Amino acid sequence: MTELAGTKERKIHASEWLERRDRADWSEADQAELDAWLAESHANLIAYWRVHDAWRRAERLVALRPLESEATMPVSGARLRSVLARVASVVAIVVLGVGASLFLTGSREQIYKTAVGGRQIVTLADGSRIELNTDSVLRADIGPDHRTASLDKGEAYFNIAHDTKHPFVVTAGDRRITVLGTKFLVRQDTNRLEVALMEGRVWLGEASDKTRAQSTLLVPGDVAVATAAAITLTKQPQRRLSDDLAWRRGMLVFFHTPLVEAANELNRYNRRQVVIADRDASRLTMNGSFPATDIAAFTEAAREVFGLHVEDRGDNVVISR
Hints:
Layout: H1 3-21, H2 28-40, H3 42-64, H4 77-103, E1 110-113, E2 120-123, E3 129-132, E4 137-143, E5 146-159, E6 168-172, E7 175-179, E8 183-189, E9 192-199, E10 202-206, E11 216-218, E12 222-226, E13 231-235, H5 238-244, E14 251-258, H6 259-267, E15 273-276, H7 279-282, E16 285-291, H8 295-306, E17 309-313, E18 316-320
Parallel strand pairs: 5-6, 15-18
Antiparallel strand pairs: 1-4, 2-3, 3-5, 4-5, 5-8, 6-7, 7-10, 8-9, 9-12, 10-11, 12-13, 14-16, 17-18
């Protein structure tokens, strides 16, 4: 299938789905089938929302100015849907054509970086706000026909302005997150991507439409962890999600966290590194809140609470039994 033919076919399918959704007999099974089609590819999702917007524009056009050849005729529901489908198709083609011409004008990509222990709030041209955590790199490109960002490394909290015409697409590693307007957290590690959703809906899938790997729809409270092999989904209470965002106020919150994992998290924010020297110490669990850049507070807690030995070795602080 050529790219042009594929675009046309997806546009037709999207129009058919919109027509079906207007019927009185729309069911949960129909919704599940639509969700599955949207999840098949990023291109399906984009086509659906573009035609959806074109359909709504067409409804307003028909309401304001009926077609001259049919103005004096009663309009049935089926004929109205047929008229709207034709107008929506024309508008969708115009949208795609304008998008192609704008794409040729060049990229508006901007790069944002934070140092180890740093944070930065970025306000994009569409009104979206992105908050970068320690040692992170983000590339963003906002234009009249597109809204994209790539999290090359690190962690970011996204508060995306709602725009049904232009879904916001975030790429992280080989995964892609597609949203209309929502709040979510993305953390990109070497072999692992984590997405936590606070508001709205997002699709998490493959960055390339050429593959048919697993994809999933996230709703508020969902935390998805994607590896090369699979996507796993869990539900977290609002309090735990708030704890995950404590870095936005310069804090780290640990809840029954193994000491070695707590030390690894602290190390993301500091040049000096905390090293857990033995297995027995690494298995102890840490609870509490700590300033992200205050190694002394963390090591003092390890000494006082667990009776561990703390040794300063220049660039490293070694904790052991």
